[in-house]
Amino acid sequence: MTGVTGVAGVPATAGEGAGTAAPDAGAPLVRVRGVHRTYGSGRAAVHALRGVDLDVAPGELVALVGRSGSGKTTLLNVVGGLDRPDAGSVHVDGTDVATLDAAGQVRLRRDVVAFVFQTFGLVPVLSAAENVAVPLRLRALPVADRERRVALLLRLVGLDGHAALRPDELSGGQQQRVAIARALAGSPRLLIADEPTGQLDTETGLAVMALIRAVVEAEGMAAVVSTHDPVMIGLADRAVRLVDGRVLPA
Ligand SMILES: Nc1ncnc2c1ncn2[C@@H]1O[C@H](COP(=O)(O)OP(=O)(O)OP(=O)(O)O)[C@@H](O)[C@H]1O
Ligand SMILES: [Mg+2]
């Protein structure tokens, strides 16, 4: 543990306590079965995923590894509902992600899954605090509660002194920490991070990965993090290796 304390004390949704036990405790949070995803067709077809099975338990930090082109981003997008499999099933928190309608996808991304990307994806004209507040604006949360939660999240990622700065006034590592704080704002049950340290130097990348490790423990969420870095992999509970769109047996 790196001294990170949870933010569960400040609910992300008005009238709803964070950290409520799942109705089916003991079941995997993520359950992927026989997932195929092919881009294009005919001779140009690329079989990005060829029958992937994956379980992720609540509270587990899984490193997703594999060579460039092995299907990591495709799998993360399918798990998070950004993309649909051509075959197979994807359940997250008991919901069949592959068959969600548009409203269901919005709910999934607002309430269950949060993404962190290699390129941070912050809104350039907003301050760090305003970026973190974006997911909370989708909720009926009183302004004072929202501000309290944003302050807590920025403190959690060690940026309480940087609340008013815009992304271009922050270093890469600081921007990624803002992105992690934003991802945590809605108390997701699953954090999906696609090479979150890919644009950072080794030391900063390690600090960001250690932060992810710490917030997963503090918040009790699960995380799937794709990475090429062996040191990052060492911080995970388990590594899942993709080779040409298939999971290598453990
Ligand atoms: N939108 C797309 N259209 C066509 N082919 C795609 C598309 N996205 C990915 N692919 C192909 O699917 C395969 C898997 O790509 P994916 O991005 O999932 O790999 P990755 O493991 O994330 O690689 P990297 O480590 O470089 O990020 C690759 O062969 C890629 O070229
Ligand atoms: Mg990728």
Automatic annotation (TrEMBL):
Residues 30-250 form the ABC transporter domain. Keywords: ATP-binding, Nucleotide-binding, Transport. Residues 1-23 are annotated as: Disordered. PROSITE patterns: ABC_TRANSPORTER_1 (PS00211), ABC_TRANSPORTER_2 (PS50893). It comes from the Bacteria. GO terms for cellular component: membrane protein complex; plasma membrane. SUPFAM superfamilies: P-loop containing nucleoside triphosphate hydrolases. One of its GO terms (molecular function) is transmembrane transporter activity. This is ABC transporter ATP-binding protein. It comes from Cellulomonas pakistanensis. The lineage of its organism: Bacteria, Bacillati, Actinomycetota, Actinomycetes, Micrococcales.
